[in-house]
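User: Sequence in, structure out. Go.
Assistant: Echoing your sequence, followed by the structure tokens.
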Amino acid sequence: MKFINKDIKLGASGLKLYLLMISLFFIFLVKGEVTPKIDWPVFMAQHDLVWEDLPLQWNEGAFCGNGQLGMMIFVNMKENGIVFQLGRQDVTDHRKAADKKSSIGADGATVMLDYPRLDIGKLILHPAGKIISGTMKLDLWNAEITGKISTDLGEISFTAITHHERMLNIVEVTSTEKKGNLYLPWKWDFRPGNPASPRVQTRPNQNRNKGYVTNPDPWIQNTGAVSVCVQPLLAGGDYATAWTEKANDNKTNSVLYLSIANEVPKSGVSETVAKNEGLEASKVNLDTLKTSHRNWWHQFYPESFLSFPDARMESFYWIQMYKMASASRADGPAIDLLGPFFQMTQWPGIWWNLNLQLTYWPFYASNHVELAENLIRLLDENFEALLATFEKEKLGDLAWALHNYWLYYNYRGDWKSIQEKWVPKATKMVKAYDEMEKVNQAGQFELLPMGSPEYKSFTLFENTNYNLALIRWLLTSLIETNEKFNASQQQVVQWKRKLEKLVPFPVDENGLMIGSNQLVDVSHRHFSHLLALYPLFQLNPEIPENKELCEKSVKHWLSVENGDKLTGFSYAGGAALYAAIGDGNSANQLLQQFLNGDGGKGIVFPNTMYTEKRGKNPTIETPLSAAASITEMFIQSWGNKIRIFPAVPEKWENASFYHLAAQGGFLVSASKEQGKTVWISVKSLTGEPCVIKVPDWEEAWQVSNPGKTKLEKISNGEFRTDLKKGEEILLLPGNENVTAVISPIDHPANEKNYYGVKKGKQLPEDLSWQLPEFKPKKISK
């Protein structure tokens, strides 16, 4: 053990006593190891979504997914059926790119008309009797949905999963419905989705949608052991949905296997792939399939842990972890606004001016960065095309996506990939910005009129803080990376010169402006003009004058016109902004407003899905970004420092987390009891230097590896250590006898299982788009 604040001089006898005390101390502390004591099935069960009344629409439904394939499950009382709304994230059109699966990045292609998501359709389970009532549950630990539906002829129950290791939805059905002694059969009904762009369906009178030609009608074949629906596309290729049912002898139990294949741009292949997937699975023991599915999820959750006193918010956080893994997989497509949970929407794809970036924020600190690999692949494969097709006035949207790219490798401590993969893209980004710059009379670089996302209907403004913040981050990070590798020294000199001469952020008496010729004078949902604070930290809030500016800017943005135009992601973003300046109370207040639905134009539903336009347009990024805002209260790692409990609300006296990730490649664990941080553990994955900042500490006692790992005090509450790859250090604020144990906060029984539709709380009306039912002319082959 080592006191880091002073030198201690001891005689021989004193030294022996001191060493004895050290030995005893380490025995008490279990050799400096962190011990998780978490009964995961029990812990996760308190956060299961429980439907005491049946969900009657998408906005209330139970959802499952494997990162590419997914379902939303609810009941349609008018049709007397249990609806399994189907989705697969890469089922998009590909007009203007016949040789690719998607036309993203193709010249002139738009997400609205050329590569929108397409509606696959739904499978409806009709019981023999009339549905009266029922309950459902989403078992988070096992990623499994169960339902019990009472009818006037008995009960029909189901268990549904989207298998994580296969492109397969599985639904097991059991029924007690009968008349007299005769058991009655249920019926499956597949309804193909309309193959037209959802934007055209929801906005048919919009000028640019007129003249749109829809895709051909699908064809359905119900012969043999497998039924299939094949949807051809005008651009070439097709996708297919296949299902097969395996029933027991007395027809009271069956298992349905449904697969969706998308082999675009190939033609005539998806049908065979989809059929084979279901047939092969039907030959495997169902328990074996369930076990392999559950095993993936049982490995996923324990990769990190977070528990705190607010039971509702804790449940919300863990449901977002489930949603995150249901919506993303490393080898799948990047997440759009829907994820694999398709719903008719006027925004059927990826949006770049905030949505894509926010969607991926929770992946990093939660230690699930591997699931964000699909975004890296999207940018790797399409960066040149995107850079060429992005309007110069909207360069900031692509530059912001590069920040997510940088975060992905930074949280892994992978500086080599940053140098080899990110630096070339960032360099081209800076060059693209060169075309939007001018030199003023003072010799400063200014920006020509550019957009600040959606402000005053995409009006262009000079020196937008949105773009200035992104340019400063690009230059700062390019300089840091190239100096680390002693590379591109001539460019480093040029970048430093540009950084020095870049015009300052435009400010007024209310803080950061939209641009030098535009005040923040109307309520606006985007916080893009505040990126210099979060997430880019080009304004360091630990510098007093910067903190004052940031506080004033955030407060004004949230309050102008009483926040009339704020929406869900405004509250989630505002919470992250307040957390960045260390104001945990305000961060918590905004998150409570978001969860309450007290403010904003969007709606958080009982299943934690979020939509705008009064229930009609899902945007998955908002609840996911709220989960990221929660982690910002517990750990932050910007500016080459790991901050422990930087913005925890005062009333959360007890909290703990395990293996949350930090930039530079670190896994961090910590515990707070009675308002004080009692221990911290940091593990290095790559061997990077580490600075640890603990606001409520003055000193730190090194428990693990005493004398082996150097610990240096920089100032009160701030310490530097140089861990080797794989090494871990455990720190205490003093010589207390503390055991480093991670365990959940105990919540009262009446605060558990907050989410799901509760008795009598179903939505009073269907908030989905009310469109004519799609009736294809040709439905059989």
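User: And one key feature?
Assistant: The first helix runs from residue 12 to 28.
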